[in-house]
Design goal:
Order of helices and strands: HEHEHEHEHEEEHEHEHEHH
Number of helices: 10
Largest sheet: 7 strands, parallel
Radius of gyration: 18 Å
Length: about 260
């Protein structure tokens, strides 16, 4: 597998320079529960370790009624960014627009969200905006009353996007669809694997080989349960230099992870 990754890496695919991931960066996923929050925390930790002033914004937090820690609470515990903001919270664990509707609460208005993000961008080197679910989940409404999605937010702001993907079966189709949707909108994107298993199977290695041209990071499964100090020290090792990390050779990474597993 390491040999295959090495062959795939020749010639090296173009990777975004660190400067392309300054300003505002969107974090979306191929689906819900793929690891967006932990990836957002890891990028925030690595960027702050590089000396950047970092803000994290969650436009719409749903599922408040469940009593589980919110995404911003998790990110604050793991990475302690300089600034964190949640723009709206809704009780039910569903898409933000649907959650607002069933709770009879005001939906997120696109340009109010854009203004809030730009206000933080004026004060920070990097603003990470964590979406909800996947790229085309209805987030709120435009002034016209039409719904808007995370993809609309990316195009309105003209920002790069991190796509968090699963490692296992089904990820290639979901990732390809998300990347194609972003490419059609002219949105630059890279992929981070949200949870690489401790004991990867053949399907995981096969998927990794296919994803390598797009990969800018891979987090170990269970990273979110780490001690915050360990998480912050470890985060740069999960991310490529494009995301302020030190992971610069997928062949070496595969060899290290493959020992005793593959």
């Amino acid at each position: 597998m390491a040999a295959e990754l090495s062959a795939q890496a020749q010639p090296q695919p173009r990777r975004p320079e660190a400067g392309e991931w300054r300003g505002v960066v969107l974090v979306t996923g191929t689906d819900t529960d793929v690891g967006k929050t932990i990836v957002t925390a890891a990028v925030a930790a690595a960027a702050q370790a590089s000396g950047l002033r970092v803000a994290v914004i969650k436009p719409g937090q749903t599922g408040i009624a469940t009593g589980a820690p919110t995404d911003i609470e998790t990110i604050t515990r793991l990475a302690a960014p300089d600034t964190t903001r949640t723009l709206a919270e809704y009780p039910e664990p569903m898409a933000p627009l649907a959650a607002a509707t069933v709770a009879s609460l005001p939906p997120l208005e696109l340009y109010e969200v854009v203004d809030a993000i730009r206000a933080e961008a004026d004060k920070h080197d990097l603003v990470l905006v964590e979406g909800a679910g996947g790229l085309l989940v209805p987030m709120g409404v435009r002034p016209s009353g039409e719904s808007w999605t995370v993809a609309d937010l990316a195009t309105t702001l003209g920002i790069s996007t991190i796509v968090v993907a699963r490692a296992g079966l089904g990820t290639l189709n979901h990732t390809a669809l998300t990347l194609e949707a972003l490419a059609r909108r002219g949105v630059p994107a890279g992929v981070v694997i949200g949870a690489w298993p401790a004991d990867p199977e053949l399907v995981h290695w096969a998927n990794l080989s296919e994803l390598v041209p797009h990969l800018i990071g891979a987090l170990p499964d269970g990273a979110g349960a780490m001690d915050p100090g360990v998480f912050r020290r470890s985060a740069p090792g999960w991310l490529t230099p494009a995301l302020y990390g030190v992971l610069d050779n997928w062949r070496v990474w595969a060899e290290e992870f493959g020992e005793g597993h593959h």
